[in-house]
Amino acid sequence: MKSFLDEKLTNRWFWSKSQTRHTEKLKEIKKHNAGRIDNSAPKTRRNNSTSKFLELEKKIEMNRNNIKLLSSLTDISSGKRATSTRLILNSIGTLPKPKSLNVQSRKKEAQRIITDNEAFARRLNNSQNLSMKKLDKEWHDNKKYIKNVSKAKFRKLPLITQRSRLDERKLSENNSVIRKRAQSLYGDTINKPIVKKNKIL
Questions:
Q1: Which candidate among 108, 161, 168, 180 keeps its CA 20 to 30 Å from the CA of 126?
Q2: CA-to-CA distance for 143 and 139, rounded, in angstroms?
């Protein structure tokens, strides 16, 4: 009969042998399947450089168009009239050329810029210039109107004054009629002063 200690030792020996076999098998599997399994770190996503390039080009194009519009506005304010054909030709000269992808969308954008510039040039040609003389005249006229309105606030209205005068006349006429009637009834006693008699105690 085996004792308890002998059984424990045999179990421990068996467990250690099975562990060594297991580790050896894992090593063999790794050697055979090393080319199949990719344990390297995943690649990070690259920044889309083409979209940044297109955004920069759009900003540059917008700045160019803004400079051209500013120069046309300064010409108009100084008295020069910029023709629409000249503006269109200038805008065509600065059109974006196909350097990268999205050629069709870039063409549409260029066409839209041309139409916008043409419409803006028409509006500028049809608009009238501001004259300083006209503005000064309007300002003086407005000042006159303000003075007249402020004077009219403190002035009595003619209808109200006429009514008040008519009422005063009617009152005076009524008072005179009452006095005449009283004189005809009581005689001269009305005009005489009343003398108080002192009582002698």
A1: 108
A2: 6
Residue with tokens 């209808």: 159
Give residue 201's pLDDT: 43
CA-based nearest residue to 57, from 115, 88, 103: 103
**Across 149-164, average pLDDT:** 60
Position 87 scores a pLDDT of 60
Nearest-CA neighbor of 122 among 79, 77, 66, 83?
A: 83
- Can you say how many angstroms the Cα of residue 131 is from the centroid of all Cα atoms in its chain? 29
- Long-range contacts for 94-98 (Cβ within 8 Å, ≥24 apart)? 94/61, 94/64, 94/65, 94/68, 96/57, 96/61
Q: What is the pLDDT of residue 52?
A: 78
Closest CA to 89 of 67, 61, 68: 68
| Buried-exposed string 39-51: b where 16+ CB fall within 10 A, e elsewhere | eeeeeeeeeeeee
pTM score, two decimals?
0.22
